[in-house]
Write a structure and sequence with these properties.
about 25% helix, eight-stranded antiparallel beta sheet, 8 strands, Pnp Oxidase, Chain A, about 150 residues, alpha+beta
């Protein structure tokens, strides 16, 4: 992963988390703030209260796909990998709070009302999902959507 992608992930982008449990039934949840550690690990704050099946799935089957999409132009990337889950600590919850302010502001500038946005943004029962990427894909709509731009074998 490079610094530009890390900056993108840390910006006010939508964060959609795809998981499946042992039965492989798909489930989605939403992240409430993300950042990168040394360009190697991606951390995403997720509410276990709001997305309990996502957290349960990650504990049963650590495979995850997270899509980061910028709402202003739909530039999107998907990161696939293996995840671990633990309770978020105060500094991580504060970082999540700053993200929530930034994404609400971004979406309001695009015409969405706060009442439409805030129901899926909460830090209640905040968990930290830490992902070791195995593959990264461009998912921006268009001719390059689905193109792998990085994998752990490189």
């Amino acid at each position: 992963m490079d610094k530009n992608l890390a900056a993108f992930i840390e910006s006010p982008v939508m964060q959609i988390i795809g998981t499946s449990g042992l039965s492989l039934k798909p489930e989605i949840g939403r992240g409430a703030g993300a950042w990168c550690d040394d360009l190697k690990i991606v951390h995403v704050v997720v509410s276990a209260w709001q997305w309990p099946q996502t957290i349960a799935n990650l504990r049963d089957n650590a495979q995850v796909a997270v899509t980061f999409a910028r709402p202003t132009d739909y530039v999107s990337y998907q990161i696939k990998g293996m995840a671990t889950v633990r309770e978020a600590v105060a500094a991580e919850i504060e970082r999540s709070s700053r993200y929530m302010v930034a994404i609400v502001s971004t979406l309001m500038r695009l015409g969405l009302m706060p009442e439409m946005i805030t129901p899926w943004l909460t830090k209640r029962e905040a968990m930290l999902v830490s992902i070791e990427p195995s593959s990264i894909f461009v998912q921006t709509p268009g001719p390059t959507a689905g193109t792998r731009i990085w994998n752990s074998a490189q």
